[in-house]
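Why do we care about 3D structure at all? Because function follows from shape, and shape follows, mostly, from sequence. That is the central idea of this module. The next example makes it concrete: a single protein chain, its amino acid sequence, and then its structure expressed as tokens.
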Amino acid sequence: MAAPAQSRLVYIDWMRGLACVLMFQTHCYDSWLGGNARKSKFFMWSQLGGTLPAPLFLFLAGISFALVIDKLCQKGLPPGQVASTTLRRGAEIFGLGLLFRLQEFVIAWGWAPWSDLFRVDILNTIGISMMLMAGLSWLVLTVTSRKLVLVAGSAAATGLAIALLTPLMWTAWRPDWLPWPIESYVNGVHNLGQPQPWLFPIFPWTGFAFMGLAVGFLFRSGWAKKSSASTFLMAGIVGLAVIYVARWFDHRPQQLYAVYDFWHTSPNFFLIRVGLLLMIMTGAYFWCRRGPGAWGFSPLAQMGQTSLLVYWVHIEFVYGRFSILAKRAQDIATASFGLLAVFLAMLFLSIMRTKLKGRRFEKLFWLRRAAGA
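And the structure:
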């Protein structure tokens, strides 16, 4: 039996909340740990966990985008109008990303370099991903007469192509003839002469959004709606298989690229994370439908409903001028207490945001509302 729409939304919110928690711990330990704590295995594992929040946010943006497009198509809107609506929303998110960078620069006035205004952050990339997904959806829907399965296949192929091109776009095919603020959106070069792993350029990050778009459209197909539990279980199995295949390719002695960087540009690491996302999605679905996530209040699901707000606010109290602990000076225990304080404060902020929700905030959460319509 198909899961009700509300259950579908809960697992998406829960995954966004998980991304927030993983993001908190990555940022807190990176900002606050100092001395020998930064050389510990604890810190290493913390930063390894930090490889998942951005893929989670982008993957879920893709899934939500597919749900929105499906709803708009069901209302009978032509592909052009669907594309213009979703393209405009993507532009709004991109604009919020630029506004966030301006805010950070103003707050840090006096010690932040002017180049920070052009940093390619995760909000910028989510906005660009949405605009690119709108363009692809318009093209495929126009050509194929609204066959969403074909859109799913095109999205998956696009995501894989982005992953395969990433090593080249960071090295041999670098568009270094572009001004660095523009090239930075391609490969994260910033103004430092070489691509930077701490930024979120189109290659490879938008690939996760396209993979989410593919999954979202597949889940809107008739057979998936009739057997949601089996569909999610199959997604988890496929995710495990993708991880196994990617690891097998990574251990081959032959390599496709002259420069192979597993952690930053490797298509194999990209696919491993896609597999993990599928497995996390399966776990989240069953946790929220049949496990403790369905019993009542869920802190992760609550925080996932306001993920943009808690992302926006927590940065200042971890990395910014108002950091609650001295940076690069804490041991693991002190930083962990700081992490707990950040989590509780952001959970409280999320609850208050939900209770005091006003019309002026609604456009920031259009994907969640439209998906649950």
